[in-house]
Amino acid sequence: MKVGVVTDSTSDLPPEVARDLGITVVPAQIQFGDQVFLDGVELTADEFYRRLQSSPTLPKTSPASISTFQSVYRRIAEEADAIISIHVVARLSVTYDIARQASADLKCPIAVVDSQTASMACGLLAITAAKAARAGESLKNIEGLVRDAIPCTVTYGVFGTLEYLAKGGRIGRGQAFLGALLKINPILAIKMSEVVPVERVRTRARAVERMCEIVRSLGTLRELSVMRTTEPAEADDVIRRLSSVFPPERVYRASIGPSMGTQVGPNAVGVALIAEKPVP
Fold this sequence. Notes:
It is a single chain. The protein has 2 domains: 3-150, Rossmann fold, CATH 3.40.50.10170; 152-275, 2-Layer Sandwich (Hypothetical Protein Tm841, Chain: A,domain 3), CATH 3.30.1180. The chain contains 11 helices and 13 strands. The protein has helices at residues 15-21, 45-54, 66-77, 95-103, 119-134, 139-149, 163-167, 173-182, 204-216, 232-241, 258-264; strands at 3-8, 23-26, 29-32, 35-38, 60-62, 82-87, 110-114, 153-158, 185-191, 194-201, 221-228, 252-255, 269-275. The chain has a 6-stranded mixed β-sheet, with helices on both faces. A 4-stranded parallel β-sheet has the order 2-1-6-7, sandwiched between helices. It starts with a strand and ends in a 5-residue tail after the last strand.
């Protein structure tokens, strides 16, 4: 059985990884004023952050349309026997619902999965599905592998500013102001459909080290990605700090793209992983 794998650009999958594993990435739309771009196609991450920091207003993001998803599914169905479509947490985006609606009337069997996470944590689930598909697993088995991995999957992030989370309505403006005033560097996590505060740390360096300590405490890891917005050297440093628990050559290096970057903002670094056991 040949199973096609689909995700959306919120997964932040590096293009070369998607290409090598045959994963189709459906781009979201990013709007700056009157200009609309396809995420990762017409607007790179670096260009996005340059625009973001100079824009007087927060850009708008919107997922691909039902018709776009239907077109993608039909094209893949010409060569595949079934499709698994894995998407950003449904509580933060309507992408999952759109994909589910798009799959409803197609003859090709399609499993649409809410990853319950975001960025490269969602990407790692797509990678898991693609590796199983390449090994010849059935749609049922691949979907089972992905759903079993979700409780073991988490994203951790350290933010340069809370301004963009506040503008996007993810936290209150009072919290953003207080965090800036006190120079608090929060560590946040996305797991099991929840955005949760992990710790508040006074210095950036300590926040990054504490994030790495948390990752090292989780035991054996199946997959690991280190993501960043504007500081590649900091991502390299995180990979080095985690080399005792995961081989650097197996780490997926990713840029946090426009879809997530609208909320995250510049100077952010994060870790996405799939552990052997459910993440507490």
